[in-house]
Amino acid sequence: MATQRSALMLGLIPAWVLLSGCVMPDQMSQLQKDIADVRHQLHELQREQGEALEKLAAMEVAPDPEEQDLATREDMAELIFRVDQVARDTAIAGAQLNEMTRRFDRLTDELGRTQELVRGRDRGPSPGAGTDGGTFPPSGRRTSTTTTDPDGLYNTAYADFSKGNYELAISGFEEYLQQFPGTTKADNALYWVGECNFSQGNFAEALRSFDRLLEQYPGSDRAASGNLKKALTFLEQNQVDQAIVQLQYVVSTYAGTDEARVARDKLTSLGVSI
Fold first, then answer.
1. Partner of 194 for a Cys bridge, out of 75, 209, 240, 241, CB 3.0 to 4.6 A?
2. What pTM, to 2 d.p., does this model score?
3. Whole-angstrom Cα distance, residue 25 to residue 30?
4. Residue-wise pLDDT tens digits, 93-112
């Protein structure tokens, strides 16, 4: 079950978070993946809850309960149970997502402080110091066009995404892509640009971002997710025929993956036989 899977992932996190208090890039990446997984599960639970409520509402406007046959009453009872169960699972997933996001924020802050200390030792006196010993006012997000800290830039952008600060996240990920287009996280950064646009309802921009991902990084391990999100973006734009073609592509190309399973379920919900 999705909830059991989320609980398992959440239970594994403290083991490495507490190890020596040191934040490693692979730990940040794993937590980012776990957050993305729970976000996806939460989205699917919300979709399932909506579908169940729609079916239940349709049954409730049916003939008087005394005139309903036994099968209909059993179906209603099953739907009510399903709605309650999904509501509980949604609450659990939401709580897990909040806790994981808080942990990510703490790790990001810790990593940022560590990197600032390292940079401070490397460069000596702060270049922001004035002649009278004061400092220039802080400016929030760094606007420099150059940096030697790709992990810090990426993690800051992802932290913004996790908090729902989508515009800041897009700015950070785009800056990362401009400065470090050949790194192993460049395809991830482009994928998250698409997710940010999707989350804001900017579906045309989201589609362009996912297309960029698939064109620039065709061998990316984000390719399956990018193709699936393209299909979901088509659906959000009521381009059902294109969505069906895209979902069928995901099922055939990425067989055995979670993305293929989601695509198959979505096709079934659209009444398309596999």
1. 209
2. 0.54
3. 9
4. 766 676 677 666 666 666 66
CA 20 and chain centroid, separation: 28
Residue 166 counted as domain residue: yes
Tens digits of residue pLDDT in 221-272: 999 999 999 999 999 999 999 999 999 999 999 999 999 999 999 999 999 8
Q: What string of DSSP letters covers 31-54?
A: HHHHHHHHHHHHHHHHHHHHHHHH
**198 close to 170: Cβ distance less than 8 angstroms:** no
Residue 63 burial class via C-beta count within 10 angstroms: exposed 0-12, middle 13-18, buried 19 and up:
exposed
Closest by CA to 173, choosing from 212, 131, 224, 117, is 212
User: Is 187 within the bounds of a domain?
Assistant: yes
For residues 178 and 266, membership in a common domain is answered with: no
Q: Is residue 91 part of a domain?
A: yes
Q: How far is the C-alpha of 232 from the C-alpha of 234, rounded, in Å?
A: 5
125: alpha, beta or left? (left if phi > 0; alpha if psi -120 to 50): beta
- What domain range includes position 249? 222-274
- Domain assignment present for residue 144? The answer is no
Where in 124-184 does DSSP place strands (E)?
A: none
How far is Cα 57 from Cα 80, in angstroms, rounded to an integer?
A: 10
